[in-house]
Predict the structure.
Amino acid sequence: MKIPPLLAGVAGEYFVAAELSRRGHIASISLRNTRGIDILATNQAASRSITIQCKTNQAALKTWMLNEKSETFVSDYHFYIFVAFSGVQERPAYHIVPSRVVSEHIAATHKHWLTTPGRGGRKHVDTPMRHFVDEADEYLEKWNLLGL
C-alpha cells in the first residue's frame, strides 16, 4: 500500500520524532510554515539542541528530492534525516546527514549533471530540484552524528 505523497512526508516526520523519543531525546515537530525545519530536538539535559529537516521516499530507494535552497541552508546544528519507507509492516530506514554534507553533495552532483549531455546529446536545462543519494549507506542509522 502506497501512502499519498503529502501524508508520506508527515508520516516521515512523526517516525523520526518517535525514533528520537525512543532513543531518549526530546523531539518537537514544528509548524508547517517553518522554513527548512521540521523537528526541534534536544537531549534530556538541554545541553544540546538541533534542528532537523525530514525528507521521505516510499520505494526504499536511497535517493531523495530537495530544492536549491538546501545548498545554502547550512549550520553545525542543522541535520537532514532521510526516511525510506519500504512497506507498512517494516521499520523505515533512516539516513542521518549533517546539513553541510548535504549542501556540498547536492551542489557538486547538480553541477556535474549540468555539464553532462542529456537525452540526444542536448544540454540539461537548469532546475531548482536537487537529489541527495546515499547508495553506499554511509549515513544509514548514524544517529550519533546528531550529538544528542
Remarks:
- Residues 5-22 form the longest helix (18 residues).
- The chain has a mean pLDDT of 93.
- The first strand starts at residue 26 and ends at 29.
